[in-house]
Amino acid sequence: MEETYLLNVEGVKKKILHGGQGELPKLQDGSKITFHFQTLKDDFERTVIDDSREAGIPMEIIVGKMFKLEIWETLLSSMRAGEVAEFWCDAIHTGMYALVSRGMRRIAEGRDPLEGQKHRCGMGNMFDYHSTGYDDLDELQRTPQPLIFIMELFRVEDPSAYKRDTWAMSKEEKLAAVPVLHSEGNRLVLRKEFGQAAAKYQEAVICLRNLQAKEKPWEDGWLKLESLVTPLVLNYCQCQLELGEYYEVLEHTTELLQKHNGTCALHPTPLLCPRPSGTLSSGSPIYDNAHPTSLCL
């Protein structure tokens, strides 16, 4: 085993447990790092706090996307692919670990990582901060302390080498992804793969809703994005109709009618009604652009 100190990083010590291969990774904004980790207390028993292997899948982080535990990017940048290393980190680097761990545990449990934080502000968030819902993490928050991270680096991928999740995309990337997802959805509809098509339309809507959240409602920027959202939602509803999800169709179409009350007379929308055949006819409306009556089939 080789022990070394990371240069220019105060309060960090590194011990290589198994050497890696190749050069050190060149991280850039948007790089995806895939690795396993184990977190231990710096006590006599080396008490295990978290172990990503228990979840069955490696951890992934995107460089530069405001990951709360910034020291991890620094640690991983010192590793080669296949390397296993142990890092001792002083308390100055581990203060946010309890919150990061809380989110990861909730995801592994199939729960919302922000559960308990929504629709709260001020004092409410203060109390959430001091109560993670896990006794061991509450202790870490009350008593900041050094932690040990054992990491195994699998790979580092450039931003162009993998399909990014919506949350990791820039504004430009989200806008560019929307027509691609729209076309993929239309192609899947033609193959009568309605579940997969609905997922494509939904992903495109999520991209646009994320962008809309940064605009003022009903102003030009918001309205332009809304004009792209509407046909995607209608396409999504058409797929859900074919899948028999009538209540979901009713919910979404009612929301659209309420939101655009007053514009419907100018752009009449075909009614979406359940058909016993369960298949799209050649004239079924799958909307291809902002005008809801255009067809692409």
From TrEMBL:
Keywords: Cytoplasm, Repeat, TPR repeat. It comes from the Eukaryota. InterPro entries: AIP/AIPL1/TTC9, PPIase_AIP, PPIase_dom_sf, TPR-like_helical_dom_sf. This is AIP/AIPL N-terminal FKBP-type PPIase domain-containing protein. GO terms for molecular function: peptidyl-prolyl cis-trans isomerase activity. It is found in: Cytoplasm. Residues 30-154 form the AIP/AIPL N-terminal FKBP-type PPIase domain. GO terms for cellular component: cytoplasm. Gene3D superfamilies: 3.10.50.40, Tetratricopeptide repeat domain. PANTHER family: ARYL HYDROCARBON RECEPTOR INTERACTING PROTEIN RELATED (PTHR11242), PPIASE FKBP-TYPE DOMAIN-CONTAINING PROTEIN (PTHR11242:SF1). Pfam families: PPIase_AIP.
